[in-house]
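Quiz preparation item.
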């Protein structure tokens, strides 16, 4: 007797396929329930974007200027001496320079930490201090050349050029601080290159074009 096309397929092979599909679906549901939001790739030590770096530079600049203003004001007030016209300026430099240094490094570190970049403060402070020392060296050296006994245009131009270069390095200190902060971020460990496997359900078409559910099991992926 010929079976009608409208009758359901109740052969043992069809029943086995139905059971396999049910098992595959159950396995997928169990895997999804036990994954608990596990990411599909490693999220350890994500690379900073341009926006994050720009925010770190902005944080270092803002806090550096704030430290310079507060520290310079306190130093000028504390070291002010009516008998010396330069006492307030000297005090402002003596106190404002370190507070600007700490503020620049601290602002960069605070913004980077807010974005979860996991950099370290002491390397950031060291890079910032290097920029400040170079800036101070060029500025002081340029002033010394300008005020030297060499009364010619070349010495004056060289001294002013050194002073301007020192000021440029001083302004660029937040960029150096950001570079130092990102250099201090922990590097990817070799273990993070091995991505845990996953289980998912997909549709695979046979030679007749009929879609069948399939269970894709990935044991391990290696990231290069």
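Solution:
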């Amino acid at each position: 007797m010929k079976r009608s096309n409208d009758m359901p397929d109740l052969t043992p092979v069809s029943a086995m396929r139905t059971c396999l599909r049910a098992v595959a679906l159950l396995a997928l549901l169990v895997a999804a329930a036990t994954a608990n939001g596990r990411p599909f790739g490693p999220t350890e030590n994500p690379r900073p974007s341009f926006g994050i770096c720009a925010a770190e530079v902005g944080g270092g600049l803002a806090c550096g200027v704030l430290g310079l203003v507060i520290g310079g004001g306190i130093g000028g007030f504390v070291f002010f001496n009516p008998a010396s016209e330069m006492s307030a300026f000297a005090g402002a430099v003596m106190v404002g320079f370190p507070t600007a240094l700490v503020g620049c490094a601290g602002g960069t570190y605070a913004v980077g930490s807010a974005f979860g970049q996991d950099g370290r403060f002491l390397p950031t402070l060291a890079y910032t201090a290097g920029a400040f020392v170079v800036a101070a060296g060029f500025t002081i050296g340029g002033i010394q050349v300008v005020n030297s006994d060499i009364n010619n245009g070349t010495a004056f131009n060289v001294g002013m050029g050194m002073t301007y270069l020192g000021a440029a390095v001083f302004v660029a200190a937040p960029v150096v601080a950001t570079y130092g902060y990102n250099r201090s971020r922990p590097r990817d460990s070799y273990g993070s290159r091995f991505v845990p496997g996953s289980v998912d359900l997909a549709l695979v078409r046979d030679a007749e074009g009929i879609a069948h559910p399939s269970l894709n099991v990935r044991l391990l992926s290696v990231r290069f």
